[in-house]
Write a structure and sequence with these properties.
The protein is of the alpha+beta class. It is built from seven helices and eight strands. Helix 2 packs across helix 4 and helix 5 packs across helix 7. It starts with a helix and ends with a strand.
């Protein structure tokens, strides 16, 4: 009788364990169903393509509109100095921005410190394209900084007062650049002439900051 009783208790414990495991598994499945679906780069970019930012030309005539060549295509040519990756793609064709190119830009211009990506504002590439046109060069821009995650920006802001706490880098609207063979002062002058956003001059660090935020200018080290 004692042996049969032990068998019954063991069997009962097993049933309870299996039942508990099944309940836990079902709970995990229910919790997983509540997790947000990961968005693809296309899904992230599409809202940008549907906003006024993706208009076929600047809203009003200005230095940027004048500087943009009247061509059927516009190219983005950027060399990320930290990762070695190149962005060499047609980002504008047939009167509109190319979603695939913006997706590629997300990858190449990501936060190289932690790998986080963010949609880059298409107007930033218009500014870079116009700068290249003014400089009359086809040399790639050397990218020091593109997208900057909030974590990275907070770290850099704590280390240096030159990094804004609400940087345009954090919303994919800025890049720190230089061009091999082009004097930094010449690059700075070309960027300023567009009056298309912010321009920062950093002669010691050897780069020019350009963004498509409010028009302003400053100097750093």
């Amino acid at each position: 009788m004692e042996f049969a009783r032990r068998q019954f208790l063991t069997l009962g414990a097993g049933v309870i364990a299996v039942s508990a495991g099944a309940s836990a598994f079902a709970g995990l499945g229910h919790a997983a169903a509540k997790l947000p679906k990961l968005q693809t780069s296309h899904e992230l970019i599409q809202p940008v393509m549907e906003t006024p930012l993706a208009a076929s030309a600047p809203a009003a005539p200005g230095p940027l509109a004048t500087a943009l060549p009247a061509a059927q295509i516009r190219r983005a040519n950027i060399h990320n100095l930290h990762t070695g990756e190149m962005l060499d793609t047609v980002y504008w064709e047939n009167g509109k921005y190319v979603p695939g190119a913006l997706s590629e830009a997300m990858r190449v211009m990501r936060d190289w410190r932690n790998g986080q990506e963010h949609v880059m504002d298409p107007r930033l590439f218009d500014v870079l394209h116009a700068i290249q046109s003014k400089l009359e060069v086809n040399t790639p821009f050397q990218l020091i900084s593109g997208y900057r995650s909030p974590q990275t920006n907070a770290m850099l802001h704590a280390e240096s007062g030159q990094v804004a706490s609400k940087s345009q880098h954090m919303v994919g609207r800025a890049s720190d650049i230089r061009v091999e063979g082009v004097e930094l002062a010449h690059l700075h002058k070309a960027a300023l002439s567009l009056k298309a956003g912010g321009v920062g001059f950093y002669p010691v660090s050897n780069f020019v900051h350009v963004d498509v935020g409010p028009v302003r200018q400053w100097s750093g080290t």
